[in-house]
Write a structure and sequence with these properties.
The structure is a homodimer. With about 250 residues, chain A is an alpha/beta fold. The first copy, chain A, is about 40% helix and about 25% strand. In chain A, strands 1-2-3-5-4-6-7-8-9 form a 9-stranded mixed β-sheet, with helices on both faces. The longest helix of chain A is centred in the middle third of the chain and has 28 residues, at about 105-130. Chain A is globular and about 50 Å long. Chain A starts with a strand and ends with a helix. The interface of A and B includes residues 212, 214, 215, 216 and 228 of A.
Chain lengths: ~250, ~250
């Protein structure tokens, strides 16, 4: 793991790194010394590690919660080379949407293909952070990611017992139901009640499939991209409850 | 409206009152002078105005949020005379539960009968508080109540434009769907995902029926009575967002 740049602003240290082909960024409180919760941030489809929603969450977790947070580019996203797979996915997605056809299966298959590559990448990043002795990786670990971030995060959380709490959402059950049944950690799950991309029943079915004894569905009125801003603060409180109880 | 007793503890003033046949209690910050949000607290079936969940919410709204809160006994509950209606309801409810039969319609019809009487009572209490010139009734008004508290609160909020935000939940759509369609204010709606009294689909249908452009469903794993404690704090933030924005 190579740390290639570091800046500090408003009490938050931001460090860019690469691990093999995977570029990432780590946020910590600037004065951080001891172990603290680490939140893995999984961006949505077409986004990247420093999309505004990732940066704002990373900085907020560090500044307001005293956590560390790490974000990486998913395969074919951000600074990583875009492949034919991404181009074909996007072209077909546009076709389906223009035709008013359901996109759930198309998105789910693409997410699953990315997840097969991205899950071991996330695990390697977590390994490397822990092996480096970085204090940011010595505490409990959470995962936050919706849409593609859930498509990758669900199999990651199901596979890796180091992750103790997760925020998911905005994705349906296609290809993910069996994986969800292997998730047992506390989950906060976001669903948009009027989502035109993810049918309501499909999102409800995915929430239902989670085995987690502690799971909360937050369904808000509005379309796919209209998750209310107050859900960001709710996710912070969720992670504090489960990863840093007073 | 006759105020019959007042005590102050931990910075919260608690005043008992009667309005005609209806006994109630008003909580305010002990040092309250100006207008502030007022939360109407509707208790659940078999409970009463000073059930632990009502007292803790009333005191918490006053102490932590600077709000006023008022709770009254529903017809046949608390200090009000229990009638044959309540006895018949309870006996039949026990029969249905012992036989493993669905209770939704039975509960809904009972709640609707109580609501026909309780809605004008709540409106009279609000009228009287406002006419008395009490500062606690000069600000925006919210409503909190689940189960029977929603059975009464939904028609109240649909009927009374003074109420600007409401927390409902733990009840199904029977008899309430048309009323819910007349609710347009922001709503936070609680649903227990494994509720053995209220079928999941019935609760989801009631949430769906609300016309409110801003509505949030909080569905938590667990049975009817297992609403997580953190939902109380979520309701406080909901009321602060809508009734007392910074």
């Amino acid at each position: 793991m190579d740390f290639i740049a570091e800046t500090t602003a408003d009490g938050v240290s931001e460090r860019h790194f690469t691990l093999g082909d995977v570029p990432g960024v780590l946020w910590t409180p600037a004065d951080a010394t001891g172990p603290r919760p680490l939140i893995l941030l999984g961006h949505g489809g077409g986004q990247h590690k420093k999309a505004p929603g990732m940066v704002s969450r990373g900085r907020r977790y560090a500044a307001a919660c005293g956590f560390a947070a790490v974000s990486i580019d998913a395969p074919g996203h951000g600074d990583r080379p875009r492949t034919e797979r991404e181009d074909q996915f996007s072209a077909r997605l546009r076709e389906l949407m223009a035709a008013g056809e359901p996109v759930g299966s198309h998105v789910a298959l693409f997410n699953a293909a990315l997840a097969a590559q991205a899950v071991p990448e996330w695990q390697s990043v977590l390994d490397a952070l822990q092996e480096s002795g970085h204090a940011a990786a010595a505490g409990p670990v959470g995962y936050w990611g919706t849409a593609l971030g859930t498509g990758i995060g669900l199999p990651l959380v199901a596979a890796d017992p180091r992750i103790g709490a997760a925020v998911f959402g905005c994705v349906g059950h296609e290809t993910l139901t069996e994986t969800a049944a292997r998730v047992t950690v506390p989950v906060e799950f976001l669903l948009q009640w009027d989502d035109t991309l993810v049918p309501r029943e499909s999102g409800l079915a995915l929430f239902d499939a989670l085995t987690s004894p502690q799971k909360s569905l937050h369904a808000n009125a509005g379309d796919h991209m209209a998750v209310p801003r107050f859900e960001a603060a709710s996710a912070e409180r969720f992670f504090i409850r489960h990863l840093a109880p007073a």
